[in-house]
Amino acid sequence: MEIKVHGNDIERALKVLKRELQKEGLFKEIKQRSFYEKPSEKEKRKQREARKKRRKALRFKKPLQAVKK
User: Where are the domains of the chain?
Assistant: First the structure.
């Protein structure tokens, strides 16, 4: 990852860096790895996340329109 600093504006560059790290899920992964997670809990969490992801995809999916004959 590369963040360019324009005009010595380090504060803005840090803000952009934090946003990119948030998008990649780095902070979430660090939080998850800070404690041991049992395999059963890990599986349940992954299922929860997949369910959430499917619901979100359905929200933004456009409904199919019927074809007229």
Answer: 10-58
